[in-house]
Design a protein that fits this description.
Elements: H1 2-17, H2 29-43, E1 50-51, E2 54-55, H3 62-74, H4 78-103, H5 107-119, H6 121-127, H7 133-152, H8 156-177, H9 180-196, H10 199-205, H11 207-227, H12 231-245, H13 258-265, H14 273-282, H15 288-306, H16 319-337, H17 340-366, H18 379-401, H19 405-414, H20 417-422, H21 429-435, H22 438-443, E3 453-456, H23 460-467, E4 473-475, E5 494-495, H24 497-506, E6 513-518, H25 521-529, E7 535-539, E8 542-546
Length: 547
């Protein structure tokens, strides 16, 4: 047990924490969740979120506070802005461990579930990326685990303590992403209690967690209301009602959108879902933990699917119960039902990963249909990607040949680890050209003086972060800053092309005007209407022009 724990902690550090600073900051999300905390630190305003000095009311403040704390500890860099997401995932894994150790077979079951959870591709991908979903999922997971401990606790004092924790975690989740923090527990717990024949209990126990959640959220909720009376109107209607029910929501997708997302995100365990289902059927399907995990997985998944606006990261809270069910099902199936389904699933995945490795080599060597994922100077990245996929396939074959259940699972869990680790290092340059303009911006930092006027059409978060500015003008498209531009103190920050032309001519000989944008057809149109720049650099997908 001790060796297993040390191994899991070591792998978590190696896979999740050590390579965090390798990849460049990716737009738009990472730049956003870096810049808003940076502006909080600089301004000293920890109540009202701002982006580019403009009011930004899409999320509450807790996620920004956590990122700001990391920046203050580790500096303004990629590692600092990603670390809170990774730590949150580690805590979620710990909650899964506590749940499984207590209710599903002891320490080994807990470690098994942690391994399944941390090896899911979506968990890994989202956790090593600077977004708020991992932090939100941590609070939801901690709240659900606390509720289940309270539900099964016989002693009144301990039950009250777990309900207190449940409410506190719900309040913290609310401060991270809003009212969805209350919706997920309700859509899980109410059906679960009905199935348990204890639906009346819901009304008896809710007063304490609801009271605690309100007390946790109330101080900031009151402060933001006093400072910005319109915050709750915008946040509730635009970020909840409109996103969930509008016919034209942000990120509109079909009802079935999350099905392929979950299938891909659950890899490498997707191939073993049939085995786990067969095992769950034999594992006391009436057991409270199985019932709770089923509802915890299914109903939030359906809830997110019903929303008109969707992003792949939304279903991250569904992966802890998935790990619980997979652990219970696989143990039962492999130990008692034989190996046919396990063998089929593992064989299929071994073949698929082997084919992917072969296809990557063929495409890279032959330039199939004129496409090369990696350029001539990136051959080592292609080699690393192929090595990771081949290691994945080879360890799956070793898992098939093992006769010991624990060794099979260890080998299966370890199979994708080399590929997962290599992901940080094998990002193709063509992706950097599209999604990581930081290096390009920093190469021109010496051309910008403190009094230079910066204008951008669609890179405002990144420009603010890398140039440490919060006074950037926006060209034509306000994007997500449209609401903040509606305030009187933001008048004039949004420019038309004609307005930019007048700005350049008005400051000629006095201040430098810098235009930073994407190198697309819109820039070609802008360029024909503007004065000739004194300096212009078009590098791949981005443009730096100084007038």
């Amino acid at each position: 047990m001790k060796k297993s724990s040390i191994a899991v902690i070591g792998l978590f550090f190696l896979l999740y924490i050590l390579p965090l600073g390798v990849r460049p900051v990716i737009i738009p999300d990472e730049a956003r969740y870096a810049e808003i905390p940076r502006e909080m630190i600089v301004s000293g305003d920890w109540v009202v979120p701002h982006l580019n000095g403009l009011r930004y009311f899409e999320k509450p403040a807790l996620g920004y506070w956590v990122n700001a704390a990391s920046i203050m500890l580790f500096g303004e860099n990629a590692f600092a802005i990603r670390l809170p997401s990774v730590i949150a995932t580690g805590i979620s894994a710990l909650m899964v461990f506590f749940l499984m150790r207590r209710f599903a077979g002891g320490d080994w079951a807990g470690i098994f579930a942690v391994g399944i959870f941390l090896a899911c591709l979506e968990v890994y991908g989202v956790s090593t990326f600077s977004v708020l979903d991992s932090l939100f999922s941590m609070f939801v997971t901690s709240g659900m685990v606390s509720f289940f401990f309270a539900h099964t606790e016989g002693k009144s004092a301990r039950r009250t303590g777990f309900l207190f924790l449940f409410g506190a975690f719900c309040g913290l989740a609310f401060l991270t992403k809003g009212f969805i923090a209350f919706a997920l527990p309700v859509v899980t717990i109410v059906p679960f209690l009905i199935w348990e024949g204890r639906c009346r209990e819901f009304f008896r126990i809710t007063w304490l967690p609801v009271s605690i959640a309100i007390l946790v959220a109330l101080p900031w909720a009151v402060m933001i209301h006093l400072r910005e009376p319109d915050f709750w109107h915008f946040f509730f209607w635009n970020e909840h009602i409109r996103r969930f029910m509008s016919d034209h929501p942000q990120h509109a997708e079909s009802f079935w959108y999350f099905v392929p997302v979950f299938i891909g995100g659950a890899l490498p365990w997707t191939a073993l879902i049939p085995s786990a289902i067969l095992g769950v059927k034999e594992s006391r399907p009436g057991g409270p933990l199985i019932r709770f995990a089923v509802y915890w997985l299914v109903f939030p998944f359906l809830f997110f699917s019903a929303s008109h606006g969707k992003l792949g990261t939304y279903i991250l809270p569904c992966f802890p119960p998935f790990a619980v069910l997979m652990t219970i099902g696989l143990r039962k199936y492999i130990e008692e039902k034989g190996k046919r389904s396990f063998t089929l699933g593992t064989s299929f995945l071994a073949v698929v990963t082997g084919i992917l490795a072969t296809a990557l080599v063929v495409v890279q060597v032959t330039g199939f249909m004129g496409f090369n994922l990696y350029g001539p100077s990136e051959r080592w990245k292609c080699f690393a990607a192929v090595a990771g996929l081949m290691a994945w396939s080879g360890l799956l074959v070793c898992s098939l040949r093992s006769l010991n259940f624990k060794k099979q699972i260890v080998l299966y869990s370890a199979a994708p680890l080399l590929f997962m680790f290599s992901v940080h290092f094998i990002m193709p340059d063509l992706v950097k050209e599209r999604k990581a303009p930081g290096e390009f911006l920093l190469s021109h930092a010496n051309r910008i003086r403190p009094d230079s006027i910066i204008v951008t059409s669609n890179l405002v978060r990144t420009v603010c972060w890398f140039y440490r500015r919060d006074d950037v003008y926006l060209l034509v498209n306000p994007g997500e800053l449209d609401y903040g531009l509606g305030y009187d103190d933001a008048k004039g920050r949004l420019l038309s092309v004609e307005g930019l032309k007048r700005l350049i001519e008005g400051y000629r000989g006095q201040k430098k005007v810098i235009l930073i944008t994407r190198a697309d057809n819109r820039y070609v149109q802008y360029r024909s209407l503007l004065p000739k720049p004194a300096f212009e650099d078009i590098d791949g997908r981005f443009v730096f022009a100084r007038f």
